[in-house]
UniProtKB/TrEMBL annotation:
Protein name: Peptide methionine sulfoxide reductase MsrB
List of residues binding Zn(2+): 48, 51, 97, 100
InterPro entries the record matches: Met_Sox_Rdtase_MsrB (IPR028427), Met_Sox_Rdtase_MsrB_dom (IPR002579), Mss4-like_sf (IPR011057)
Reactions mediated catalytically: L-methionyl-[protein] + [thioredoxin]-disulfide + H2O = L-methionyl-(R)-S-oxide-[protein] + [thioredoxin]-dithiol
Cofactor: Zn(2+)
UniProt-recorded Gene Ontology molecular function terms: peptide-methionine (R)-S-oxide reductase activity; zinc ion binding
One GO CC term, this protein: cytoplasm
PANTHER family (UniProt xref): METHIONINE SULFOXIDE REDUCTASE, METHIONINE-R-SULFOXIDE REDUCTASE B1
Domain MsrB intervals: 9-131
Record EC number: 1.8.4.12
Annotated keywords: Metal-binding, Oxidoreductase, Zinc
Signal peptide from the UniProt entry: none
Active site: 120
Lineage start: Bacteria, Pseudomonadati, Myxococcota, Myxococcia, Myxococcales
Length: 140
């Protein structure tokens, strides 16, 4: 179980850049092809930009051709939560950080083996911690 990080809107605005705030707290989406992690292949762990919660290992990242970094599975079952999203006249599954409830992206059932899933994430919602460096979730 992940310890929850709950902050006021004002605290989130101080902690995050305007782009991070828009995606993580207002459920925004970066433009396709614009994210800094789209072509990244550096070994390591992707963590939540809002709270540092470990989300995905680089070994599960793949090129989906969608314009956003994609992963076959989260780091652990407790890394993310999934919520039905009915915005924009569609029914999708939103992926949120399990620690701070920040919006990360969506998951779709059209990924490669072994899971058949495509966790389509916003680069701005994550940070990359290179392999061998300690993972340190942000303090409240």
């Amino acid at each position: 179980m992940v310890d929850k990080l709950i902050l006021s809107d004002e605290e989130w605005r101080k902690r995050l850049s305007p782009e991070e705030y828009d995606v993580l707290r207002r459920h925004g989406t970066e433009r396709p092809g614009s994210g800094c992690f789209l072509g990244t292949k550096t070994p390591g762990t992707y963590v939540c930009a809002g709270c540092g919660n470990p989300l995905f290992k680089s070994g599960t990242k793949f090129e989906s051709g969608t314009g956003w970094p994609s992963f076959t599975q989260p780091l652990t079952a407790d890394s993310v939560t999934e919520v039905q999203d009915r915005s924009y006249g569609m029914i999708r599954t939103e992926v949120r950080c399990a620690r701070c409830d920040g919006h990360l992206g969506h998951v779709f059932p059209d990924g490669p083996p072994p899971t058949g899933l495509r966790y389509c994430m916003n680069s701005v919602a994550m940070k990359h911690v290179p392999e061998g460096q300690p993972l340190q979730p942000a303090k409240s």
